Amino acid sequence: MSKAILLSGGLDSIALAYWKKPDIAFTINYGQKPALAEIKASAAVCTSLRIEHNVITVDCSALGSGDLVGENAISLAPASEWWPYRNQLLVTLACMRGVGLGVTELMVGTVKTDAFHADGTEGFYERMNQLVSYQEGGVRISSPGICYSTTELIQMSQVPASILLWGHSCHTSNIPCGNCRGCHKYLYVKQQLGYD
C-alpha cells in the first residue's frame, strides 16, 4: 500500500509533497512545452525528500490547447493555459502506472484558486475518486490542499524555500518567460511569502 502524488514541479505540488511525504511521485510529460523543466524540478524535489520518482511520457500535444502547447486556446477555454480534459488525463495515466506499483492513494496538488477550471474543483475530484476507486485496483484520489490558496498551502506545509524555489511554473517554456499566468503566480506567491 503506497501513497503517490502527481508532481508537476510547481509550487502547489511541491508544497503538498513536502507536507504529505508520499512514497511515489509521478511527473507526466504529456507534450506540454515546459515538460523538461517540470521533470527537472520534480526530480530535484524527489531526491531531496527521498521519494521514488516516475516519469511517464505520452505525447498528447496534438490534442492540446493554449499556452501549454504553444497555440491559441480554443473558444471554451477559461484561461490561456487550458488543455481539454488535462487533469482527467493526468490522473488516469498516473493510476495506470500506479496500480502496478501498489499505489492505493493518488494525491493531486489542486488549490482553491484552481476552481475557475472545472477540473480544479472539489466536485471534479470527488467524481474522479468515485470513478477510479470503482475500477480494479481501487486507487483513491485525494486533493488535500484544495481548501487552501497556494500561499496558505506553502505556509501550512512549512516547505523550506530551499526546496520550494526549485519549482517551475511557466506555462510556455522550460525557461520562465515572466509573462504567462504561471510565472505571474510564481512571482506573486514569492512576494506574499516575503522571498523578494
Automatic annotation (TrEMBL):
Catalytic reactions of this protein: 7-carboxy-7-carbaguanine + NH4(+) + 2 ATP = 7-cyano-7-carbaguanine + 2 AMP + 2 diphosphate + 2 H(+)
InterPro entries per record: QueC, Rossmann-like_a/b/a_fold
Pathway given in the UniProt record: Purine metabolism; 7-cyano-7-deazaguanine biosynthesis
Keywords: ATP-binding, Ligase, Metal-binding, Nucleotide-binding, Queuosine biosynthesis, Zinc
GO terms assigned for molecular function: ATP binding; ligase activity; metal ion binding
EC number in record: 6.3.4.20
Keyword Metal-binding part of the UniProt annotation: yes
Domain of life the protein comes from: Bacteria
GO process terms (BP): tRNA queuosine(34) biosynthetic process
Stated family: Belongs to the QueC family.
PANTHER family, alphabetized: 7-CYANO-7-DEAZAGUANINE SYNTHASE (PTHR42914:SF1)
UniProt name for this protein: 7-cyano-7-deazaguanine synthase
